[in-house]
Amino acid sequence: MQLSLTNITKSYGQNLVLNNISFDLHDVHSLVVIGPSGGGKTTLLRTVAGLERPDSGQLCIDGEPLHFDDESLLKHRRSIGTVFQAFNLFPHLTALDNILLPLEKAHGYEHLHAVETAQAILKRFQLTGHADKKPAQLSGGQQQRVAIARAIAIKPRFLLFDEPTSALDPEMTSEVLDIIGELREEGRDLLLVTHHMGFARTVGDHCLFVAEGKVLESGPAERLFAEPQSSELQQFLGRVMRY
Ligand SMILES: Nc1ncnc2c1ncn2[C@@H]1O[C@H](COP(=O)(O)OP(=O)(O)OP(=O)(O)O)[C@@H](O)[C@H]1O
Ligand SMILES: [Mg+2]
After folding, report:
1. Cα-based distances in Å from 161 to 19, 31, 88, 92, 196
2. Atom 5, ligand 1: which residue's CA is nearest?
3. What pTM does this model have?
4. Ligand 1 pocket residue status of 228, Cβ below 6 Å
5. Secondary structure of residue 53 in the 3-state scheme
6. Tens of pLDDT along 48-97?
7. Which ligand is nearest to the CA of 34?
8. Residue 198: enclosing H or E segment and its boundaries?
9. How far apart are CA 222 and CA 114, in angstroms?
């Protein structure tokens, strides 16, 4: 995918969260975003997802400018698959119904077609036996697999993940990271915020280091990790790689 941001700025009250961000990435397939807490990663991702309106600036995906009126944003949001940190499943719906809902309500699938699609995806993620369970009856890893299944079911243009494993124990973390790795190998484009530096390095073809609302470093993931240029990134990697 091609992702181009020009002078994107966003504040919450007095707090400048995205400070004039510009980058122009061509032919990037897995973009990983790393950086310290509060640096603006989630806000950047939500802006790309069409969930936040910047105060100023332009955003272009695959050569198409994103317009920030309600209708365009809704259409845009529906075209991408998003998976967030806190399991964002509807708690009152079963796993199957969580996947059916966007297919039927947002994408106009006939009920039978939606059920076939959802069942095939549940099978792919070894969730068939859990189709009729509600989120509270599933483990964290299973819930995230349902969330990923739901994101994929709609045939998104690309996938956005915001720390999809931060609420999981190590074993479930590996399970979910494996799935993301597989999706990447299948050729799906993705944008991922993660605290797992080893994973970021292997799965990312390009990496952005975001801190204090700015992109302080940008380049091939391998290079950023092997040869961080800025003192900020060197210090950040020193902190997070210590253990
Ligand atoms: N909806 C909001 N209203 C007000 N302030 C917000 C809102 N969302 C984020 N912020 C502020 O914007 C800044 C950047 O937040 P953001 O969530 O983008 O950071 P982050 O890099 O994702 O951090 P983390 O690694 O902890 O998830 C923080 O100072 C945060 O408090
Ligand atoms: Mg965040």
Report:
1. 22, 10, 12, 23, 13
2. 12
3. 0.94
4. no
5. coil
6. 999 999 999 999 999 999 999 999 999 999 999 999 877 689 999 999 99
7. 1
8. helix 197-203
9. 40
